[in-house]
Design goal:
The structure is a homopentamer of 336-residue chains. By secondary structure, chain A is α+β, with helices and mostly antiparallel strands. Chain A contains 11 helices and 7 strands. In chain A, helix 6 runs parallel beside helix 9. The longest helix of chain A is centred in the last third of the chain and has 63 residues. Chains in contact: A-B, A-E, B-C, C-D, D-E. At the A-E interface, helix 9 of A face strand 4, helix 8, helix 9, helix 10 and helix 11 of E.
Chain lengths: 336, 336, 336, 336, 336
């Protein structure tokens, strides 16, 4: 548990307080207190219950990983769960990390089980300059949420790149490939998860920015929350369009596979249709009838070869006319 | 019919009352009465009608298995139907058990046709410690609902495992398989049923936690109902994502089948394209023309064999270039 | 036109009134009058216009078969259209019969072009015991609607049976079959029609049970209408899930057809891949070259046969390893 | 521009007025004035702007063909666009004709670029009997809208017939057919267009019938507008179900094509599987080895033929057992 | 930064002001000031912050390209983002250009990073005639938005043409083609992007036209904004129907590919089924048995040829009856 305190008028953040000092600090007028709990112990939880008097259910919620964002108002504070992007996230595997938190009249409590990039960044920032604290706890929370949402952008860019690359792979596809199929599936699942998370997050920020919690998030803070809301709307929007693109990729993949099948069948058909008649002709003159005049003709053999040639060329022309001799897949990748 | 009574200030639950004592008990101030009817008889139903004065339609509803959750307010009590997970539920077959119930000003009535795990658990709990009753009937009901919703979690985990396993089976699939198809179908049906039930249940708990029934569910009970609501939202959410995953599995299955078909066709085509020309050449020299100079050449036979070899190698190179000689399905399972 | 009258306090329904007596009857205080018009004549319509003073548009609506349920309030009465299940309905063909009706302050008018089972049942009931009338016209109407909705249940059971049976047929399918496809199509159409009708009916009953028409449907009648509403909600719900099941059936059918195709292709490929090389070898030794040493070897023929055997066995092993020799479709039906 | 005037108490419609008389007419108390502009000139537009004082934007809207229905209220009048069915509409091609109009306190203005059937019909009607005008301009407008909506019915019947016929064609299909595909596409497009138009029209009529424009559409006119609304609801409903049917047709078509492919493959496989072994056997005894005992046996030839026969019959039994010898498509059309 | 000022009563737009004069100009009563910032510098941004006192977040929003339209109200001004169509847009690639803007009580500020066609057009217009400014800044903004929306029309026409052309290409398709598939994908993506943008824009204009910002957009301006709203509704509507058409195109493409496959298989099957039996017969008489009576018959050879002919003709009749000898794809393009 780290306690960061900003006292009105001060130029620096004070640190190094102990749990025992907390009740005192909370009573200081004009102080902004940020209590960050990383991998919290039972002592930390007791603080939430006994010092901050938070509802036992919310503290229980903190302890569990609940897997979806929410916000709840209680008398004197709001409790929220938001999700940040895990550092090891990739388009194949969208991982989130949960942040539980409380916003009180002059305090922000954050609670997370692992190292949380955005939290670390904001601390760093505060230690350099305490400006973010000067405007009160709602602004400090805005700062944290802003950092969290900012980490979604590179993920979206990764999705973009991967989908683009996938599409090229599909159109360059030599043969149907379960690997590509698996990748499409992974991407789809990731995007759906991203969409679900950001959608719920959007909801929360909409409620924050619309003035629902006006006691704790004052009127002049609302443009800042609206700004984060806009960011997350964009995330959801992009997730939506990525979902469409991935669905399109699957359709394209299936269609390319189908085209390839067509091509295989054409090769088989062309070969069979040329070879079978020739073999038949050879078979005819391989028969052992006593009386087969052609066999004794001087140029019978060569005539037979000629007939075979004519048949073969005839078939080729037949198929060429049908357009079966070119390659069905020009391997054009969209100029996208 | 079992009657459990908690009297204010007592440390224990009183049991062993008879039907005849019920009217008396209901009049006791501060008492919390729980009447649990398992496989109810006609006598039990008469109690509902005559002692509790519940609306005849609700009692009729109790008797039937109505198959979907609902909640209805009547003057002085609310009637609800919720669904628990049956013990024999599996991802292939999602089975529920119906619980009908009434919440009165100082009584909870539960009514079910079979043994109900969650009910038995809560009774066990009360016999150990009557704390749950100290906060009134609404808290007792919350306890029961909480137990019911808790049993959904292992089902969800089972779904997760099964879908994961299914996906691996699909990508490892040697040949198209109606059994896998049947399993996908069963899973889909189960998930849809789960979703439908939990969706309606979500609705009920939302109404309970929003203060719609404030006469019977007091303000300070609402966070507890909101907590159950959150649980069931998560159930619905996961059911949603499982539905998406199962749809994806079906797409993957169809695509894997399609890839396999491609592979089969390639084998056929490669074989035919190599063998047919060779057979044709053999056929040519099997002809019985008198005048076939090659036949009398000393190395004609070997030359013919050489030509065949060249043709065969040529075809192999042709197909190798097209990438048809590898196996189309690398059998990569997603590293999921 | 049949006129049934219940006079307060009476133990029996009075019948056998003529049109001329209607205005008198309508003025009787406390009487409940039910006018049922089956295959109405022009005289009946004049009664609606002149005696009951219903809006000409509603009377016109009665005359036509409008194909969808609705409810409309007019000063002093409500006009409704609901749909019953026709006796000859089957899952392949969902047929409805329209009932037009009016609910006045002390009268119910029903209007239908053909024999209507539910109406006949309610009349039968009234003649046995006039209880349904004692609680006023709204209760009488409830009785009629209840009977109508009750006839949906066997239809739903039929759907259930048919879909189940269809699914078994699909998994037992020997070969693709337009008949099954046709049946899926018919079922789908029926379910969609059922869903559309019950959905609109649900709407009407919701409005009735929510107190929108409180002048004609008193407060204490609402639980009864809510009960019918619940029934119809269940119908709609089941129709929804049947729709999902039928969509699943179509997917299963297409997939089974696709599996069967795979099987066919495998048979073809295995046959071709074994026979073509053997035929080629035979062809080689059928060539007529002068100098073919093998031909003169004593055991050449048997050696050739041996080679053929080895090739055949080799191919069989190759395909067995790929798992192509078993049957792709284990014909397992889901243990549903 | 045609001007039809009904003066209160008159038995006939007066006609033949000039533009100059319009301002006078509009001031006559109790007169109902209908100004119909077919293929309007610039003079007509000036009248709209200068005499009726309509907003310049609405007049501009009239001039253009805007392609979708709308309704807008302005002080003292409402402006609407509705769409009628063009006479040359067919299920393959759903064409509409736009009607712009204004409803004022005692005048209706209609504006259309081409001959409009419904308008002509209403004029005809008025000339025969001016009843429609006696109830004021709102009733006159109702009359016009009713005529427009009535023309949708035959179109829906045409759709019905065409879809039915299409379904039969699909199940009777001898071979895959781009023509049927094209027809499905055309039907789908038409139905979607119909649905879009009628959906918007439904909206407009809902607003008219709900009393939103009560200044111009009095209370007692609302049942009449509700009646048109009901008609258009039915149109939209049917369009919805046609869309479902057409989607079903496409699925059926694709499935029938797939069944046909199966059949083709079975023919190929049966032929290959019977002929290839026979040809192989013949090939074996066509080999030229010196030492082939069977060749010199007296009944060797006949024995070989017998073996061939046994093989052929064996294969036939094999395929018959698999059910491949019947025709996969019983060509059953649904008994619809 | 360009500053255009219209002073009440003047016949011309004044230009050539410097940043320093801005504060003065803004105080002039009745003046309408348009500040257009193309590729803005930091100085410009300072003006937004210091002179106009806009919220820092909105100025930051201006700087970034945010990719979706929005509107926000602040005390004394509204901030909006709308999107115009880029000049280089094609149906394959729908490109937009972002316009940020502010509407104040007597000023309009536009901010864009590149040359913006619609802005240039409006400036041109104003220099010719300052009418657009006479009705205040809301009308000036309407003029700009109108120009922006007008540029959507040609794009929609391009889509129409391209989809039509695509459909013809599909039905004329000689062989499956990844290029067409790629084009369908590109079109789909473009239409989805168009739909998303226009949908959000529709929202903004709905809010503007409904009087939400009545302080800045007076009542009498609303019909003008409603008019733009109507335009953009039409854009969205058409985008919707294009999306449907493109989905239909994909289905048609897949179906045409499938038909083509059928045709290929039929060619293969017909060839195999005719040639294999003939080859077998030839093989039989190529056997070297000592005792084969037919071989020594005088007309044995010719009889064998005759049998072959009969078999071939028989097969042809068999296939002709099944309708396999015609071409499956009549290459009919819909008469669309």
């Amino acid at each position: 548990m780290e306690i960061l305190v900003y006292r009105n008028g001060q130029q620096k953040i004070s640190e190094g307080f102990t749990v025992e000092q907390l009740p005192e600090l909370l009573k200081e007028p004009g102080a902004v207190i940020w209590v960050d709990m990383e991998s919290p112990t039972e002592v930390d939880e007791r603080v939430l219950l006994d010092v901050f008097k938070f509802h036992p259910l919310t503290v229980e919620d903190c302890r569990e990983n609940r897997h979806y964002p929410k916000i709840e108002e209680f008398p004197g504070y709001i409790y929220f769960i938001v999700h940040g992007v895990r550092a090891d996230t990739s388009p194949d595997r969208f991982n989130t990390i949960e942040l539980d938190g409380f916003l009180g009249p002059n305090d922000v409590i954050t609670y997370h089980h692992d190292f949380f990039r955005s939290i670390a960044n904001v601390k760093q920032l505060l230690r350099t300059s305490p400006i973010a604290c000067q405007r009160g706890p709602a602004f400090l929370l805005h700062q944290i949420l802003d950092q969290i949402v900012d980490y979604y952008s590179p993920v979206l860019d990764d999705f973009d790149t991967r989908i683009d690359q996938l599409e090229h792979e599909i159109f360059d596809l030599k043969q149907p490939n379960n690997a590509i199929l698996g990748e499409i599936m992974d991407l789809k699942r990731s995007v759906l998860r991203l969409r679900r998370i950001s959608n719920k997050q959007m909801d929360i920020l909409l409620r924050m920015s619309r003035g629902e919690f006006h006691a704790l998030i004052p009127e002049d803070m609302r443009p800042f929350y609206r700004d984060i809301h806009d960011h997350i709307v964009r995330v959801t929007d992009l997730a939506d369009s990525y979902r469409d693109l991935i669905s399109g990729s699957l359709e394209a993949y299936l269609s390319v596979v189908s085209n390839r099948m067509n091509e295989i069948m054409k090769v088989l058909t062309v070969f069979s249709a040329i070879m079978l008649p020739l073999t038949f002709i050879a078979g005819v003159y391989g028969m052992n009838f006593d009386n087969m005049p052609e066999l004794h003709s001087r140029y019978g053999y060569f005539a037979a070869l000629l007939v075979m040639l004519i048949v073969a060329v005839g078939m080729l022309i037949f198929f060429w006319r049908r357009g079966w001799l070119g390659r069905g897949d020009q391997r054009q990748t969209p100029e996208n």
